[in-house]
Design a protein that fits this description.
- By secondary structure, the chain is α/β, with parallel strands linked by helices.
- Helices cover 42% and strands 15% of the residues.
- The strands form two sheets. Strands 3-2-1-4-5-6-7 form a seven-stranded parallel beta sheet, sandwiched between helices. Strands 10-9-8-11-12 form a five-stranded parallel beta sheet, sandwiched between helices.
- Helix 2 crosses helix 3 and helix 8 runs parallel beside helix 9.
- The protein is globular.
Length: 384
């Protein structure tokens, strides 16, 4: 029998940042361990739990030294080699420490931090690091950057198809989505969830879980659309926006107050463990962004049986399956067209069943982890 692969999974921001990449690293390492793989999670900060979770004590993007280096790097022209922000400096600090830990006896490094993956790829090519490197591509790196990686995990079939015209000879490519725990993310007790958040039992609750900003997430567009939503019989409408604070968050708060009044509620930096009850309290999940690489919040909402309203981009349509009837939400009134049929309880129930089915069949741990395991074995066979 061949020796088991030694797999490293990591994220430079794990334990001090609560976003998609960090959640992905934590969940992926845990799932691979449950599947019997020999995997170690490497985080930048936080408590270690050897041998499965190792802290590298690297610089963080919030460290004053990293922020100071940001301006120095720009003055020195280091943006040309990918060093232009405090986050880049965090990734560099993390990469140096990670390389020292895994360079000799690991087989695979699987990360979604693009700079970490690129630098570790170069070290492997130069014969200075043993593990083959896989980038889980969820940060919209341009083709000019992606051609330098040895192995790419695209998160949706459309990306895999679109990449073929750019793929350099010898690059290993895969189409495997992120996954979620569908046993955890399920419909649950709606009445209890609403009581926990002081939401009226008879309200028609629309939910967005995203960074609270206008750019990309377009929460302002959703606010304006919902402000025009007609009264649904005797049911009051409540729009809940939950997400991380951004530069534009205060503007979002003011717009919600001005256009929605007590029909809008902005929840800033909700702990991840509490977001589940928001899905369980909602009737419909609404996404204002025109494009997403692969939104974990979107998949979590599907798993909780929420019908979704979203743009008709190829990726979002593929993710939603029958849980949505998307249109192009670039014009006023477009989102309202999607919301109108969902005033019917029967239609919501029909799409709820389809949403849950889609999540289990495509985005569950049971569906995705075997694909990851096969990807690792193919990379070991294909990548020099």
């Amino acid at each position: 029998m061949p020796a088991p692969l030694k797999i490293a999974v990591g994220a430079s921001g794990l334990s001090h940042v609560a976003r998609g990449i960090e959640a992905w690293a934590l969940d992926t390492a845990g799932a691979l361990q449950r599947a019997g793989e020999q995997v170690t999670l490497f985080q930048g900060t936080g408590p270690s739990h050897p041998p499965d979770r190792i802290t590298l004590d690297s610089m963080t993007r919030h460290d004053p030294r990293a922020i100071a280096w940001q301006s120095r790097m720009r003055r020195c022209g280091l943006w040309r080699v990918g060093l232009s922000s405090a986050y880049d400096y965090e990734q560099l600090s993390y990469t140096i420490r990670l390389w020292k830990k895994i360079r000799r006896d690991f087989d695979i490094l699987h990360v979604q931090d693009a700079r970490v993956a690129l630098w570790m790829t170069y070290l492997h090519r130069w014969g200075l690091s043993r593990p083959r490197v896989i980038l889980g591509h969820g940060t919209e790196e341009p083709p000019s950057t992606l051609v330098h990686y040895q192995a790419l995990q695209h998160l949706a079939p459309v990306y895999l198809e679109d990449w073929e015209k750019h793929r350099p000879p010898g690059q290993a490519v895969f189409g495997i989505p992120n996954f979620i725990d569908v046993e955890k993310y399920e419909a649950g007790d709606k009445s209890a969830a609403r009581a926990a958040w002081d939401i009226p039992a008879d309200a028609f609750v629309l939910l967005t879980v995203a960074a609270l900003k206008k750019r990309h997430k377009r929460v302002d567009y959703v606010i304006r659309e919902i402000s025009q939503l007609p009264v649904l019989g005797s049911r009051p409408v409540l729009y809940i926006m939950a997400g991380a604070r951004e530069e534009e968050t205060e503007e979002i708060v003011r717009l919600s107050h001005d256009l929605l009044g007590d029909r809008g509620r902005v929840l800033i930096n909700v702990p991840r463990e509490k977001v589940l009850s928001l899905y369980q309290a909602a009737d419909v999940f609404v996404m204002g962004s025109l494009h997403e690489m692969l939104s974990v919040a979107f998949v979590e909402a599907l798993s909780c049986g929420l019908p979704v309203c979203c743009n008709d981009s190829p990726t979002l349509k593929w993710m939603a399956g029958g849980a949505a009837e998307p249109n192009r939400i670039t014009e006023p009134g477009a989102l309202l067209q999607q919301l109108a049929p969902l005033a019917s309880a029967e239609e919501r129930q029909r799409r709820s069943r389809l949403a849950r089915q889609r999540a289990v069949e495509v985005f569950s741990e049971q569906a995705v982890v075997p694909q990851l395991q096969e990807m690792y074995r193919q990379v070991m066979a294909q990548v020099p």
